[in-house]
Design goal:
homodimer; alpha/beta; Rossmann fold; 13 helices; six-stranded parallel beta sheet; 5,6-Dimethylbenzimidazole Phosphoribosyltransferase, Chain: A, domain 1; 2 domains; 6 strands
Chain lengths: 337, 337
Amino acid sequence: PCPQHRERALARQARLTKPPGSLGRLEGVAVELAALQASDRPDLDAVAITVFAADHGVCAEGVSAFPQAVTGQMIANFVTGGAAISVLARHLDARLEVVNLGTVAPPPVSDGVVDETIAPGTDNLAVRPAMSPEQLDAALAAGDRAAARAAEAGARLFVGGEMGIGNTTSASAVACALLGKPARSLTGPGTGLDRYGVGRKVAVIERALRRHADPRDPLQALASVGGFEIAALAGAFIGAAARGLVVLVDGFIVTVAALAAVRLRPELRPWLVFSHQSAEPGHVRLLQTLEAEPLLCLDLRLGEGSGAALAVPLLRQACALHNEMATFEDAGVQDRS
Amino acid sequence: PCPQHRERALARQARLTKPPGSLGRLEGVAVELAALQASDRPDLDAVAITVFAADHGVCAEGVSAFPQAVTGQMIANFVTGGAAISVLARHLDARLEVVNLGTVAPPPVSDGVVDETIAPGTDNLAVRPAMSPEQLDAALAAGDRAAARAAEAGARLFVGGEMGIGNTTSASAVACALLGKPARSLTGPGTGLDRYGVGRKVAVIERALRRHADPRDPLQALASVGGFEIAALAGAFIGAAARGLVVLVDGFIVTVAALAAVRLRPELRPWLVFSHQSAEPGHVRLLQTLEAEPLLCLDLRLGEGSGAALAVPLLRQACALHNEMATFEDAGVQDRS
């Protein structure tokens, strides 16, 4: 982030025809985007959304309300345009890319899917490491390549989404490992478990966490209890920031990936903008840990990057107001008496 | 609102390719819009924004940080495109109309302003009724005419905004009268008063409220301590709902107008969608009274309809998701196991 552009943006906000501070959170958003893009006129016209998908061996423990085949089926739904993120990307005129890191059942449609298959899903993290160090490297590198493609396509904002039946179990386990918290403090219903299901999920995560040598090491945590798509998201965020791309963070699972990425590269943190606080109860704790104030709070719990996509218009409006409003001098409006 | 369309919309939401409830607040928004528009495919492509502006005699008591001439100057800024609401309307491709109900200084630009001048501002509500019964009728009728023009132009959503130096004093006084609350409970800094300024404002409102015969009568409250633009907003909301137009309510002042309108016509309430909770401390109390759950909370306190305009993309996204997402059957995605 560029301090000169931040100062100039702050000075401009004070001259726009409105009482100082009256645009609330949007003023700070515009100023930060100006600093991050090192531009007097921040813009988010070109948005790149990448959805990373993969299956999870931990589904053998009965941690999801949906069958595993849904991961591949939803990959097809993403590229054929019927999923929530497909609809939102279309209306945002955003570039939507779907990266398959490995599913149990192949997607029924694969045209338009970026194939980065590592394995047909992770191993069962309740009993063994989810992935080998080599598989972790492959997932991180696949994320970085996605960020590179987004940057090359001229994107000004990067949104990462995820799809993977069972992946809130993996995300909660990674969060517990990184934060040294017990499983129950960061485990919730995901896409729709009842109370008994959540209890089972907590027990599975506790078993997984007991296997750990050095849980707070982010690479160890990702390999031991992570998912291919979670690791790829971490790689993508590091790659996006390294290329000067602002990252808009989605919900619980993506925030876990962002936390792992920040632990790996603390200089990433200023590049992260947080879109929403999800209904998953652990999300608010992660946001506090990252000192993040999300823009929206709409009880979302879908994933796919959908919550971030929902916040894009607000960021664009913040830029438009910053860039296009008249100043007191230009408009001939008197300032405070 | 049409109960059959509500039922059909609920049934459709359950078949879309997402876990039930995972789009959170947006699902209920889409269902309500389907019921209000009596449509299986709710849409908010055509949005009408009307900003009502007027001056306030109570400014003689020193209740605002800005000089009164700013009201007319901002009317010019609205129509020449430099104000926040001008920028937002342009990006929403919305119809923006500015209605002048009477200013102390004429707007330096009047081309494109709808002239509904009643008087060069209200009387000083601290010492006399703000307006006569005839002036109140004129303001309500001007609002109704604006709603009629929006409906004739084919709008599917009506946004009302306001501009008037001193109008948070008037709005707080109307709210106190309608709710039978003391001045201090619903009075805040407005566009930027300090602690002493707020104390002065509270004293002014207390003086005004002591003059009242029957403060809870909404017409009496509007005439005695209201403003031309606040009364016009109430008239516009009643007129919009009567014409089947969904109303998106802005911040504190507009919510006071909405409350007065609901007291006059309780059948209006279902037509009101609430966009945001503003930084003005009294707003949350008004929202509670109206059992309203706003979509955004961004510490906004600008007015002009800007907070409502900021929420329009979210409503449009809720409609797009409802209308365009694939169902489980269409996409060949398995439902919960």
